[in-house]
Write a structure and sequence with these properties.
The complex is a heterodimer of chains A (about 180) and B (about 700). With about 180 residues, chain A is mainly β. Helix content of chain A is about 5%, strand content about 40%. Chain A has one domain: CheA-289, Domain 4 (OB fold (Dihydrolipoamide Acetyltransferase, E2P)). In chain A, a hairpin with a 2-residue loop joins strand 4 and strand 5. Chain B folds into five domains: about 130 residues, Up-down Bundle (Four Helix Bundle (Hemerythrin (Met), subunit A)); about 100 residues, ACT domain (Alpha-Beta Plaits), CATH 3.30.70; about 60 residues; about 180 residues, Histidine kinase-like ATPase, C-terminal domain (Heat Shock Protein 90, 2-Layer Sandwich); about 140 residues, CheA-289, Domain 4 (OB fold (Dihydrolipoamide Acetyltransferase, E2P)), CATH 2.40.50.180. Chain B contains 18 helices and 22 strands. In chain B, strand 21 and strand 22 form a beta hairpin. Classes of the chains: A mainly beta (about 180), B alpha+beta (about 700). Chains A and B meet through strand 4, strand 5 and strand 7 of A and strand 21 and strand 22 of B.
Chain lengths: ~180, ~700
């Protein structure tokens, strides 16, 4: 039920790991997060809703004894909702926000690959928004095999303020 | 030397047991009333005293055993009704308990003892016993060990060992000592019977023997002494080395009068050969052990048992391999394993949780002592003693609580005359209570004393420059000034409190634990200090309910009753608030589905014929609130987990927990909801 792909930040990391990105698919685009932030990949499971929470917060889940909020990235980025399919997974990430580190699960359409990207291969985001995501949350863009990768800045995306009810105000301006 | 280490461990056990015994004695004594000699209680106290005495004698802590002997004699007389329970007697015995505690602490820390208090107390006991020399000085005392300085090469030691007649009664076995010596070298033992014993009068439990031992070994006197460590207070021991010309005689000073501190210090020989067994190490640590309710241990053992069964079940399916049914069996087994593992984890966490009663019960003594010292009459009321707190939190809360209680007694509760003059009952009430509220544990220290004098506090704050004269402060703000460093309003500094180093430290200690302290005070009526502590590890007795599609949990403690409400009984007031008439009172009503904006597929569950609904009536802070739920489910203990850790605090929720099936359920913050309801319609209804 639970396929695990665990690579905790506490592990001894070689210089190369720092530049590895786990990519996932969301609404046809490929996004990436630093692999050292990824705590595991979790199959879909029962989520308990949190009363009066923003709609992109699906609820909380029991992850080995910890209560972890689950965020629907499609809803977060104002994308069209689709029913959960067989590839739908939850990527569990560690977020470093100002006050404390947090563990958060994000629902994505499916995981894709692990790429090693040099800093030189990452460009800053042009002024226009990318995909459905505001530029605040994007660390940069990269290209692999003619494919564009959107590298997310999850610390900003899931900071305490962004999880707050008013957060959607900051949301994507494009569509 | 390994034997030193072993002794240290054993000594530690003795200290721990004795401390428990002391606590038993103390609480027993506090339960005694003059003129009412409850034999069961006296027996309990007696047994505790007896164990301490016995233990101390075994380990050669003569001072304690001799001292406790007097106490024991007194208690024995109580037990056999030769003496009546009097206020004086209880006082003396409580003093004696303190003495023994002090002696134990001094021994443990290798520290100096306050000799005067021990002597004083001993005298009081002696006076009560009507004799001045209550076995204070054992006659056949001082064993003078002859110890030889260090040397090398094989030495021949002559050891003369004459144990006291009662050596067997303390559980010592000379043969073991001899075996110990044998491990050092070649041993030759000759027994000698003391001549004047008639066979008919022989007591089989007494020792009538003495031994001459000849040991050939390359050891020093200390090693030989160590073998006799357990019995050295109960024997005459002479150790003599043949190889050396002159014997260096050293008085180990082991047995002297019970009133001296000498034997509290480890015996020292001039040549420093005899090492003290009770090394000073690890003295000032927090108590490293924990007392756990047997039920919790049983629950843990049960779970471990089930885990073993699950494991063997899984192993069987593993061996069956591809056989039919194995797969589903394996899946079931894994699910069971998952559940057991989780329960095991929770049980293990439970072990760290201690009821606050262990901390509260200390205050009975404290209140008694302080109030009698101050000439005040105070009754201590405890409630919520079985509220469980994490051990660490409990230990750290102990000092701040003592401080608050002292403050209440010293400054809060007035002298009996003043109380009568103010039209209050002569006996003041000090209330200590603990309970769960809104994701916290609350500890309250409440008195019906004079309360805070806001005017005076303000004046002093201005004098000390804490606030400026022009600053306008509400009464509550003024009350909070007492938490400022260096602030004290006591007219005279007493040895109890009033040095102004109190409340700020209390506040800091509580803040260190992530809690906070509030004060509510009314002049002339009393004060209430409310400490809120987070309950990261706390356990809650929960009532599971279903609201919509989800399970929510109420604290069982907050539920007053559940009622079935016919629809026409719900009244809607102007402004949208809803109330229900519960017998005499109107109480506000909240629909959890609406309150939590639940978008649920399950239809509202109705009862009775005509669309009746199930309402849980909860109470907090004296105010009641009705909450509509769909269904009542199980009751179970749940471990409260924070929502803040990975998410953020949610209004209306005190936290979350993980249920047996691995799903998360939300815990409802009853006090929060009650407060909200109160704010919204404070004027409409008030059940208080």
């Amino acid at each position: 039920m639970t396929s695990e792909y665990s690579n905790s930040p506490d592990d001894q990391l070689s210089a190369g790991d720092a530049n590895q990105y786990l990519t996932f698919v969301l609404n046809g685009e490929e996004y990436g997060v630093e692999i050292l932030r990824v705590q595991g990949i979790q199959g879909w499971d029962t989520v308990t809703p949190i009363p009066n929470s923003p709609d992109f917060v699906l609820g909380v889940m029991n992850l080995r004894g910890a209560i972890v909020p689950i965020i629907d990235l499609r809803k977060r980025f104002n994308m069209e909702a689709i029913p959960h399919g067989p590839t739908t997974v939850i990527i569990v990430v560690k977020v470093e926000s100002a006050d404390k580190p947090r563990t958060i699960g994000m629902v994505v359409d499916g995981v894709s690959e692990v790429y090693r990207l040099d800093d030189a291969n990452i460009q800053a985001l042009p002024e226009v928004g990318a995909g459905g995501v505001s530029s605040d949350y994007v660390k940069g863009l990269s290209t692999v095999d003619e494919k564009m990768l959107i590298l997310l800045n999850i610390d900003k995306l899931f900071s305490g303020n962004e999880l707050n009810h008013d957060a959607p105000a900051h949301m994507a301006k494009t569509a | 030397m390994s034997i030193d280490l072993d002794m240290k461990e054993i000594h530690d056990i003795f200290f721990e047991e004795s401390e428990e015994g002391i606590d038993v004695m103390e609480s027993g004594l506090l339960g005694l009333e003059p003129g009412n000699a409850d034999p069961e209680l006296i027996n309990t106290i007696f047994r505790a005293a007896h164990s301490i005495k016995g233990g101390a004698a075994t380990f050669g802590f003569t001072a304690i055993s001799e001292f406790t002997h007097g106490v024991e004699t007194l208690l024995d007389q109580l037990r056999s009704n030769q003496r009546a329970v009097s206020e004086d007697l209880i006082e003396v015995l409580l003093g004696a308990v303190d003495c023994v505690r002090g002696m134990l602490a001094a021994l443990k820390d290798d520290a100096e003892l306050d000799l005067n208090s021990v002597t004083e107390c001993q005298e009081k006991i002696n006076a009560l016993l009507g004799s001045t020399s209550v076995s204070a000085t054992p006659e056949s005392a001082a064993e003078s060990n002859e110890i030889v300085a260090l040397g090398s090469g094989v030495k021949v030691w002559d050891i003369e060992f004459r144990p006291d007649a009662n050596i067997f009664k303390t559980g010592n076995e000379p043969v073991r000592i001899f075996r110990e010596l044998e491990s050092l070298g070649k041993l030759h033992v000759v027994a000698e019977l003391s001549g004047d014993t008639e066979f008919d009068s022989v007591d089989p439990e007494s020792c009538y023997c003495g031994w001459f031992l000849e040991l050939e070994a390359d050891v020093d006197a200390g090693a030989i002494e160590a073998a006799f460590e357990w019995v050295k207070e109960q024997c005459e021991l002479k150790i003599h080395c043949r190889n050396l010309q002159a014997d260096v005689t050293a008085d180990t000073g082991a047995v002297e009068s019970a009133n001296t501190v000498a034997q509290l210090e480890p015996p020292k020989s001039e040549s420093n050969v005899a090492k003290p067994a009770a090394a000073p190490a690890a003295a000032s640590r927090d108590s490293g052990s924990i007392r756990v309710n047997i039920d919790k241990i049983d629950a843990l053992l049960n779970l471990v048992g089930e885990l073993v069964i699950t494991q063997s079940m899984l192993a069987r399916f593993g061996e069956d391999g591809g056989e039919r049914g194995a797969k589903s069996g394996l899946r079931d087994g894994l699910m069971v394993l998952e559940r057991h593992t989780r329960e095991l984890q929770e049980s293990a966490m439970q072990i760290r949780m201690l009821p606050i009663s262990s901390s509260f019960s200390r205050f009975k003594r404290l209140v008694r002592d302080i109030s009698s010292k101050l000439g005040k009459k105070v009754e201590l009321v405890l409630s919520g003693e079985d509220t469980e707190l994490d051990k660490t939190v409990l230990e750290k809360m102990s000092d701040p609580l003592v401080h608050l209680v002292r403050n209440s007694l010293d400054h809060g509760i007035e002298m009996p005359e003043q109380r009568l003059a103010a039209g209050k009952p002569e006996v003041g009430t000090l209330k200590l209570s603990a309970y769960h509220e809104g994701g916290s544990i609350v500890i309250e220290v409440e008195d019906d004393g004079a309360g805070l004098n806001a005017k005076r506090i303000h004046q002093i704050a201005i004098e000390r420059g804490v606030v400026s004269e022009t600053e306008q402060l509400s009464e509550e703000q003024i009350h909070h000034l007492i938490f400022q460093p260096g602030f004290s309003t006591a007219e005279a500094v007493s040895d109890l409190s009033g040095r102004g180093v109190g409340m700020d430290v209390v506040r800091r200690n509580i803040a260190d634990l992530g809690g906070r302290i509030d004060i509510h005070s009314e002049q002339g009526k009393g004060s209430c200090l409310k400490i809120r502590l987070p309950l990261t590890l706390a356990i809650l007795d929960g009532q599971l309910v279903r609201v919509g599609d989800d399970v929510y949990i109420f604290s069982l403690r907050s539920i007053v009753e559940t009622v079935l409400v016919p629809p026409n009984q719900i009244k809607r007031l102007a402004g949208g608030s809803v109330v229900y008439r519960l017998r005499e009172d109107y109480i506000p009503v909240v629909r959890l589905r609406e309150r939590f904006n639940l978008n649920c597929s399950a239809p509202r569950k109705t009862y009775l014929e005509s669309d009746g609904e199930l309402m849980v009536v909860v109470e907090s802070d004296g105010k009641r609130l009705g909450l509509f739920v769909d269904e009542l489910l199980d009751q179970q203990q749940v471990v409260i987990k924070s929502l803040e850790e990975n998410y953020m605090p949610v209004t209306g929720l005190a936290g979350a927990t993980i249920l047996g099936d691995g799903n998360v359920a939300m815990i409802i913050d009853v006090p929060g909801l009650v407060r909200d309801a109160g704010d919204a319609k404070a004027n409409d209804s008030n059940a208080a």
